[in-house]
Design a protein that fits this description.
Layout (H helix, E strand, L loop, with lengths): L8 H18 L6 E2 L20 H9 L2 E2 L9 E3 L2 E3 L26 E6 L7 E5 L4 E5 L23 E3 L5 E3 L7 E3 H13 L3 E3 L5 E3 L8 H12 L9 H11 L14
Antiparallel strand pairs: 1-2, 3-4, 4-5, 5-6, 6-7, 7-10, 8-9, 11-12
Length: about 260
């Protein structure tokens, strides 16, 4: 059943929290989630952000949970080549710029970035606090595969535009990408992990494995490990699975004890 469209902070926080807890059940270390304290995180004021973020976005990021990578991980992924943003890292008077490069997209003040790609290829995740939607962007592919809730910024009154120093016209390209009601969005990502369309590796890397059986033999073998360990059922043996995945990828077993099932 489709989620009702419209922004609700507590529902958004609950959807993100449930998704992060799902990732822990599948592959992230048990203590990867930082839950907000009573009253929310201490986040810098809106005037310290450049570009500025509005009060609704700041209220949201003050109450979100965040993912914290273990010491031996460089970063923590929440989707395919998508690193989770942690707003608690922001300190002082800034200016804090947590938007994508403007050449990729301009971002209005009512939109929060939840995930970003650390390289050229990968995904961004945005939460629109006006519409109550979430958008998944791969800017290297453009706005292909847009949904009913995607928007054409050229046809949208009030959409941000500006000209760069090199004369390039900058726009809100994020609006063109697949967009969903927030609850539906995280259900979609969760199903991709359940169906092993996206598969995690040691130290949290996540990649697509969408070829049909017999085309991607390495992918088939990796998926088989998860299924043999009971994924996605209630009897899934995470510790055993992560150990076998590390062995499959040629990694050491130093983390085996940390991954033992409860």
């Amino acid at each position: 059943m489709a989620s009702t469209l419209g922004y609700d902070r507590d529902a958004t926080v609950a959807a993100v929290t449930s998704y992060y807890e799902f990732l822990i059940r599948m592959y992230l270390p048990e203590h990867s989630i930082m839950y907000p304290p009573p009253g929310g995180w201490s986040i810098p004021e809106r005037q310290t952000f450049s570009p500025e973020k509005d009060d609704t976005v700041l209220d949201l990021v003050r109450h979100l949970p965040y993912l914290e990578p273990p010491e031996d991980w460089e970063q923590i992924f929440m989707y395919e080549k998508c690193t989770a943003v942690n707003y608690t890292y922001l300190k002082g008077t800034g200016p804090h710029n947590i938007d994508p490069p403007p050449e990729e997209t301009l971002l209005p003040s009512h939109v929060a970035m939840l995930g970003f790609t650390p390289g050229r290829n990968g995904h961004y995740i945005f939460i629109d606090t006006k519409r109550g939607t979430a958008t998944l962007c791969d800017f290297q592919k453009g706005g292909k595969g847009g949904t009913e809730l995607s928007q054409n910024p050229d046809n949208l009154e009030g959409a941000l535009t500006r000209t760069s120093d090199t004369g390039e016209e900058l726009k809100e390209h994020w609006r063109e990408h697949p967009t969903y009601a927030t609850g539906d969005f995280f259900d979609m990502l969760r199903k991709q992990f359940q169906d092993l369309e996206v598969v995690p590796h040691p130290k949290g890397e996540v990649e697509f494995r969408r070829f049909p059986p017999g085309v991607d033999t390495a992918g088939d073998a990796l998926k088989a490990i998860f299924r043999e360990c009971g994924w996605p059922g209630e009897a899934y043996r995470k510790g055993e699975c992560m150990k076998r995945v590390r062995e499959f990828d040629g990694e050491s077993d130093e983390e085996d004890e940390a991954d033992e099932d409860d």
